[in-house]
Amino acid sequence: MDETLQGKVALVTGAARRIGAAIARRLHGCGANIVVHYRGADAEAARLESELNAARAGSALRVKGDLLAPIAPKAVIGAALQRWQRIDLLVNNASAFYPTPVGQIEVGHWEELMGSNLRAPLFLSQAAAPHLARVQGSIVNIADIHARRPLKGYLVYSVAKSGLAALTHALALELAPAVRVNAVAPGAIAWPEDGQFDPQERERIVASTPLGRLGSPEDIAQAVQFLAVAPFVTGHILAVDGGRSVFM
Predict the structure, then answer these.
(1) Are 240 and 211 a contacting pair, CB within 8 Å?
(2) Greatest C-alpha distance within the chain
(3) What is the structure's pLDDT at 4?
């Protein structure tokens, strides 16, 4: 075990599956106790909680919550405090992702995509900030390379992630020097499970990636771990994209 986070408490939103689960496992392997937040993936969250607790007894707690509910940010943070009386790291990973072509955008799309990708990270960070400050903790947001260059057909998502990038910089200023705030900007990591990209588009994306392959959830988790323990890094957005943003 890498014990760089030994005794720390990390809250990972959207942690039941995919990138969130990889982040939770990586931080747990570094010694952290993990709050596994999830919304609807009950079975996956329960399995992850059991897995982490089997590796180290009493080291994981699953917390269910819809982050768009007004009470959710304080409730989720409160669960961590009730269990461990501290929080050292907040990872804002939970995210909705789907296309919103111009002419087909509805208010509900705006509310969900802006809510999960921008509003929830803001209010979670605000609720966690005083507790993070007491332990010189940090926040890591999961942004996107399309925060800088929009993804065609995904207008609202791209705008939301651009806002999250701006939020990262603003919070780094507002919460310094007690709390560091950074972000990871993934490129193509794992294809959406609902088939949003057809085979030809997938091939095009890989072909435009200098490293010539998709990334893995573990690549993102490793970057989160780095930012969680880098004591002189704040206000930084780290692209983990195989070099794809070079061509954007």
Answers:
(1) no
(2) 52
(3) 87
Q: Which two tokens stand for residue 186?
A: 């993934």
Its pTM surpasses 0.90: yes
**What percent of the residues of the chain are helix, what percent strand, and what percent coil, each to the nearest 5?**
45, 15, 40
Q: Which of 38, 98, 154, 157 is catalytic?
A: 157
CB neighbourhood size of 240 (10 A): 20
Selection from 183, 248, 186 nearest residue 216 by Cα: 186
What is the band of 246 on the pLDDT scale with cuts at 50, 70, 90? confident
Dihedral sign, CA of 159, 21, 123, 193?
Answer: positive
DSSP character at residue 244: G
Report the alpha-carbon distance of residue 90 to residue 237 in Å, rounded.
16
Kindly tell me if the per-residue pLDDT of 114 is higher than 80.
yes
**Segment 15-34 mean pLDDT:** 97
154 counts as catalytic:
no
Residues in the chain: 248
Q: How far apart are CA 215 and CA 235, in angstroms?
A: 24
The two structure tokens encoding residue 37:
């937040």
Task: Please give the structure tokens belonging to residue 35.
Answer: 């709050």
What residue ranges in the chain does DSSP mark as E strands?
A: 9-12, 33-38, 60-64, 89-92, 138-142, 180-186, 237-240
What lies within 8 Å, CB to CB, of 231 at 6+ separation is 180
Q: What's the 3-state SS for 174-236? A: HHCCCCEEEEEEECCCCCCCCCCCCHHHHHHHHHCCCCCCCCCHHHHHHHHHHHHHCCCCCCC
